[in-house]
Amino acid sequence: MMRREENHRFPSLRAEVETFFSKALGLGRTSEPPVAEWLLSLDLIEESGSYVIEIDVPGVRLEDLVISVAGRKLMLRGRREIVRELAGSRIRLRERWSGEFSRSVELPGPVDAGRMTATLREGILRIELPRGEMRP
Could you list the residue range(s) of the whole structural domain that residue 95 is in? Predict the structure, then answer.
């Protein structure tokens, strides 16, 4: 039989387990900020004459994005808002992230940023950057 004081040998583990189950069952607070920022998943594709970047941005509108190029670095900033008023209801678990985000990626070569195009379809942002001239 385990003595009572041995029960408290791992207090931090016990707290972690309790926190895990509270969150899983929706018993915790829903107003806590996210632990980590939203990481945007992307693909960088080299096509004939251009680089194409495809980025998952579900729930984001094109007008909420800022895309810029400096040298060989592409930068994307934006905001995703999930606003939902539920009269008479209470959110028990919130896993979807909202707020500001940013992502940058180093391009494999020079680009002509003035001819960049961006389209957004079904939550996938497609940025096409024509290759630029190599500068000495």
Answer: 33-130
Token pair for 39: 């990481």
Total number of domains constituting the chain = 1
- Inside any domain, residue 75: yes
Please write the tens of the pLDDT for every residue from 70-112: 999 999 999 988 777 677 887 777 777 788 899 999 999 999 9
76 by Cβ neighbours in 10 Å (0-12 / 13-18 / 19+) ranks as: buried
Structural domain contains residue 23: no
Lookup: tokens for 50: 């251009």
pTM: 0.67
Q: For residue 117, give the CATH number of its domain.
A: 2.60.40.790
Tokens of residue 43, six digits = 């693909």
C-alpha closest to that of 44 among 109, 112, 98 = 109
Note whether residue 84 is domain-resident.
Answer: yes
**What's the pLDDT at 31?**
46
Does 38 reside within a domain?
A: yes
Q: Cβ distance 93 to 26 under 8 Å?
A: yes
Taking only the tens place, the pLDDT of each residue in 14-40 is: 667 666 666 666 555 444 444 345 678
